[in-house]
Amino acid sequence: MKVKEIAEAAGVNPDTVRFYTREKLLSPTRNPDNNYQQYDTEDLRRLRFARKARQLGFSLPEIREILDQADDHNSPCPMVRDVFQQRLAEVEREIRELQQLRKRMISALAAWQDMPDGTPDGHTICRLIEHWDDAESCCPSEDYEEVTSNE
Q: Which of 34, 100, 101, 122 is least surrounded by Cβ atoms within 10 Å, i.e. has the fewest?
């Protein structure tokens, strides 16, 4: 299969195929007659796998490690479970942080409704932000510190 053919079969665009080829996740051969890359069914299987893994949130290095373990006839499933469990904890933490950010945004918008716009005068840039201080009322202090420490 040529780049366009494998891309169509996997439901991706040709640039995705080229990207995974550059990243050494696919191993096409070269057609000696025209020097085009030729992909086989194993490349298609790996491409589909990589696409699913990306949809589940796995990084490119993690996908490479999974494929390497499988190529070495070792089950990557224990590693996949461990990585996924860690990733789930990270996602849950990020969701909590986003929920706290949402609360701060709602609080700020409510406070800003009746405030005048103001013009920068050398002392202020934007009064809305500079006069807003609602960290304690919207968020427990430990959550607020956790959120702001990542900025």
A: 122
Chain segment 22-40, per-residue pLDDT in tens: 999 999 999 999 999 999 9
Please provide the size of the chain in residues: 151
Residue 83 sits at the vertex; the CA angle it makes with 28 and 86, to the nearest 5 degrees, is: 150
* Buried-exposed string 72-90: b where 16+ CB fall within 10 A, e elsewhere: eeeebeeebeebeeeeeee
Q: What is the pLDDT of residues 58-113, one digit of tens each?
A: 999 999 999 999 999 999 999 999 999 999 999 999 999 999 999 999 988 988 88
Q: Which of 13, 67, 12, 9 is nearest to 39 (CA)?
A: 9
Phi/psi at 147 (5° precision): -65, -45
- Dihedral-angle region of residue 35 (phi above 0 means left; psi in -120 to 50 means alpha; beta otherwise): left
| CA gap 49, 10 in Å, rounded | 10
N- to C-terminal Cα distance for the chain? 46
Q: How far apart are CA 95 and CA 88, in angstroms?
A: 10
Amino acid occupying residue 119: T
Residue 86 and residue 19: Cα distance in Å, rounded?
A: 27
Estimate the crossing angle of helix 60-71 against helix 77-112, to 10 degrees: 170
Closest CA to 76 of 91, 89, 88, 66: 66
